Amino acid sequence: MTIAQRYAQLRAAVPAHVTIVAVTKVQPVEAIREAVAAGVRDIGENYVQEARRKWGESEFVHVRKHFIGHVQTNKAKLIAATFDMVQSVDRPEAADALAKAAQTLGKRLPVLLQLNISSTDRFGCAPHHAPQLAQRIRSHASLEFKGVMAIGPLTKNRSEIEGAFAEAARTFSRVGGDTLSLGMTGDWEPAVRAGSTMIRIGSAIFGPRPARPASKETATSSP
Predict the structure, then answer these.
(1) pLDDT at position 213, please?
(2) What are the structural domain ranges in the chain?
(3) Cβ distance 63 to 87 under 8 Å?
């Protein structure tokens, strides 16, 4: 099955109001071009330097680019300059660094608060700290608070997945915004049932993920 066929099949199954972000991590430029030609309008990357290498100065200029990896504060300016939305603001320091970078660039950067609903070894803000982090983000004129992103638990236990997604939806209701980015290839259906408005999809569009070349960059927000 081709990328175009996979995307068409997925788009037909996903409710029209739900945005599909095609996760292009480790995918070659040719695969991204094929996805965009098939109708993909949102793409996501975990690594800022990899994204800059693949996208170049003008390629994919009409596609919205999402950063979904861990925000390292020393790369905040590169992230703010490269992406149209940052989905992974998980602590005040990340918000402050991105705000400073966006202000320097003269742009207002849409961001999502990353929530940890799965385990202690993942990045993300605890649900009970989310209102304070949302307030911190909103205090910066150069950031536009859009809502919440979360990664589901690594389990096949349906009730555990649904419980985690329900927690994310409750937190989203408390902090506000218009975007709940919840759900990946293996769990997008319960995510949409929980109220997700945006899903992050890799292998269901591109097929099995190719091997990653050696890199100094790290991230754990990986669909």
Answers:
(1) 55
(2) 3-206
(3) no
User: Per-residue DSSP letters for the chain?
Assistant: --HHHHHHHHHHHS-TTSEEEEE-TT--HHHHHHHHHTT--EEEES-HHHHHHHHTTTTTTTSEEEE-S---GGGHHHHHHH-SEEEEE-SHHHHHHHHHHHHHHT--EEEEEEEE-S-TTS-SB-GGGHHHHHHHHHT-TTEEEEEEEEE--S---HHHHHHHHHHHHHHHHHH--SEEEE--TTTHHHHHHHT-SEEEESHHHH-SPPPPPP-S-------
Report the CATH architecture of 3-206.
Alpha-Beta Barrel (3.20)
Per-block mean pLDDT, blocks of 10 residues, the chain (223 long): 97 98 94 96 96 82 96 97 97 98 98 89 89 98 98 92 96 98 97 98 91 51 48
Expressed in angstroms, the distance from the first to the final Cα of the chain is 21
Structure tokens of 99? Answer: 């705000």
Q: For the chain, how big is the Rg over CA atoms in Å?
A: 16
CB neighbour class for 192 (10 Å; exposed up to 12, middle 13-18, buried from 19): buried
| Report field, pTM of the whole predicted structure over 0.90 | yes
Task: At 206, list the tokens.
Answer: 């591109």
Tokens of 61: 């200029």
